[in-house]
Amino acid sequence: MQQTVFSRLRPLLSSLAVPIAILLFWQASSSLGWINPQILPSPLAVLQKWLAYWQPLEAYDPAAGGYLAWLLSGELIHDVAASLWRVVLGFALGGGLGLLLGLFMGVSDPVYRAFNPLIQFLRPIPPIAWTPLSILWFGLGNPPAVFLITIGAFFPILMNTISGVRNVDGIYIRAARNLGASRATLFRRVILPAATPFIFTGARVGMGTAFIVVIVAEMIAVNSGVGYRIMEAREYFWTDKVIAGMVTIGILGLLIDVLMQGLNNRLLKWHRGIDQ
To answer: What DSSP letter does each residue of 137-183 carry, written as one string?
Structure first.
């Protein structure tokens, strides 16, 4: 029994070994005075600031509202909610457009030839390069941030969808046609399932890009979110709060990637040969 528990925990312990070693070395270096705390605060100082960032700014007052509303009134919760809302909205827009256009470009050579030169021209342009135009077109606030995130999520999903559709093994297509499958059935039962692993890969890359873009956009165009709070902390030289914001971004990205990977494994059992 103990051996079974240890064998299950072994992958987790192996994954945590390097981060824990880095944190211990970092904390020891700070305690010994090797690192200037103004430049790089210790892990304990960052943790303390992160907890303060999470906590409500004011003491609980029953007359002002319920306990749950007070508990969720901290800066961190509001900033995380604002950033996640922008990421989800931009990712949905960019991912939806990228998936739709990618499917059309993948199955239709005329559509591919018509759009591919424009796509290859726009794709190398970083989403951040669109910042001045996004502010000029949409002003300040959520619209320019969502626009930049949409661009960041669009191209990874588009390119992976095109690759997935156009690289379906020809033997499957010929077999379906020999069995009398219509074009709609061929697309729904052969092409789309075969391209799904590529689409999920593009979605994971697009989500990572969306997080990068939202932080930069919040530093420039909005007055809320984790990126805005990092920029505010930089102006006041609150290095511990800057790192606390960075840690928050890392945690959010890790949780979302784990969820997407779990969804990927669940929906693609047939592709990976997973029985359970």
So the answer is: HH-SSHHHHHHHHHHHHHHHHHHHHHHHHHTS-HHHHHHHHHTT--H
